[in-house]
Amino acid sequence: MNKLPFELDTLQQLIDTHHLKLQYQILADIPFRHEHFPLYSVELGGGDKPCPTVLFVGGVHGVERIGSQVILALLNSLLQRLVWDKHLQQMLTGVRLAFVPVVNPVGLFMGTRGNGNQVDLMRNAPIESSEKVSFMVGGQRISSRLPWYRGVGGMELETVGLVAYVQQLLSRSTSLISLDAHSGFGLSDHIWFPYAHTRTAFENANYILHLKQLFEQSYPHHGHYRLAPQSQFYRTHGDIWDYLYRQHQVADPNAQVPFLPLTLEMGSWAWIKKNPRQIFNFAGFFNPQKTHRHHRILRRHTVLMQFMMEAAYAQSLEQLTPERLAELTECARLYWYREPQS
Ligand SMILES: [Zn+2]
Fold first, then answer.
1. What is the 121 CA–ligand 1 centroid distance (Å)?
2. 212: buried, middle or exposed (CB in 10 Å: 19+, 13-18, 0-12)?
3. Which GO terms describe its cellular component (predicted)?
4. What pLDDT is attached to residue 279?
5. Do the domain assignments include residue 145?
6. 19: Cβ–Cβ under 8 A, 6 or more apart, which residues?
C-alpha cells in the first residue's frame, strides 16, 4: 500500500501504543482496490452502567483533514493526561468519551470528499427532505462524478458502521452529545444542530440552549461560535445526524435519553482570506497550511471540547427538571425559530 496519510497512521499508532488504556472496535472493514481500511471507534471511561457520553467524530469528508486532526489531537492529549491527571481519571469513572476520528478512511487516503464509491457520506442516510433543498449541495443522484452524490445502493459501509455505533452508544448512555468536526463553510466557526432536512424545530433545542447558556456564562471569552439549526444555512437530503435522531425518537419515544448531535464547521474561508495563495491548492481550501495557523486551529476548540466533557460529567442535561425544560423550549423557539415579522 502507498504510505498511509498522517491521520490514519496516527490513529493506528494511538491504538497500538495505548491499547491498555482504551477500548476500540472495528465498525466496518472498507475494501478499496486491493486493500482493506478499518473504520475504528475508540472509547475511554464509562463502565457497565449507562452514563453520560460524549462522542467526537471527524473525517466524514476525506478532504477536510483538519477535522480528523482536531479529534486526534484531543484523543492524544487525553491519553497522555490519563497517566497523571487525577481529575481526568475521576471524570472517566462517570462519563464515557467515544471517538470516531476518521469516518471515511478511503476518502482521506484518496484526498476526496466522498468515499471510495464517490458517495458523500453526509448525504447518504435514508432520510428525505420534503422541503426545497439547496440545488446540488442538498444531495444529488445525477452522477457519482459530481459532488454531493447520495449513492444509489442504500447506506454505504461507513454510514452503516457509524449509525450502528451511535445507536449502540445511545443504548448505553443517559445522554449523548456528539461533535462532528468539518471545515469549509464561511468565515467563522459554526456549530450546527438538526435539522438539516427541514426547518421544523429540533425537539432537543431546549437542551442545546441550556448548554449554550452554560458555556457563555462559564467561558465568556470563547463565544466565537455561531450556533444554529443547519436548515437556516442550507437544507440537505441524507444527513446522518438527522437520520440518527429520527431513529432515536422511535427507539426512545418518552425522550429519556437526550441526544444532541452537533456539527462543528470550522470557518476555513478565514484561512484563505489571510493566505489567498491557498486557493491554488485544493487541500488548502479545507485545511490551514501555515504551521502557526495549524497549531492555532488544533488548540482553538479545546475549551469547547473540554466543556462538553465537563458538562456531561456534571450530568447537566440529566438534571434539568420538566419545568426548566419547558421554559427552555419556549426560549429556544423565540431564539431560533421565530417566524419573520410580516
Ligand atoms: Zn464536511
1. 9
2. middle
3. extracellular space
4. 47
5. yes
6. none
In one letter, which amino acid is 157? L
CB 210 within 8 A of CB 262: no
Residue pair 49/92 in contact (Cβ under 8 Å)? The answer is no
Q: How far is the CA of 314 from the centre of ligand 1 (A)?
A: 30
Domains contained in the chain, number: 1
CATH number reported for the structural domain that contains residue 122 in this entry: 3.40.630.10
Question: Which residues constitute the domain of residue 175?
Answer: 6-336
Q: How far is the CA of 83 from the centre of ligand 1 (A)?
A: 33
Surrounding residues of ion ligand 1, Cβ less than 5 A: 61, 64, 182
Amino acid present at 188: S
Q: In what order do the strands lie in the sheet with 51-58?
A: 23-32, 35-45, 96-100, 51-58, 173-183, 259-266, 189-193, 225-229
**Ligand 1 centroid to 59 CA: how many Å?**
8
Tell me the pLDDT tens digit for each residue of 154-194.
999 999 999 999 999 999 999 999 999 999 877 789 999 99
Q: What's the CA-to-centroid distance between 293 and ligand 1, angstroms?
A: 20
* C-alpha 170 to ligand 1 mean position (Å): 24
Cell, residue 79: 491519553
CA–centroid distance, 149 to ligand 1, in Å, is 13
Q: What is the DSSP secondary structure assignment for residue 140, as one 8-state letter?
A: B
- Centre of ligand 1 to C-alpha 63, Å, is 8
Coil, strand or helix at 304: helix
Given the DSSP bridges, would you call strands 35-45 and 23-32 parallel, antiparallel or unpaired? Answer: antiparallel
Give 91-139 pLDDT, tens digit per residue: 999 999 999 999 999 999 999 999 999 999 999 999 999 888 888 889 9
- What is the 26 CA–ligand 1 centroid distance (Å)? 22
Flag whether 47 is in a domain: yes
Q: How far is the CA of 147 from the centre of ligand 1 (A)?
A: 12
* 182 CA to centre of ligand 1 in angstroms: 4
| Residue 277 counted as domain residue | yes
On whether residue 341 sits in a domain, the answer given is no
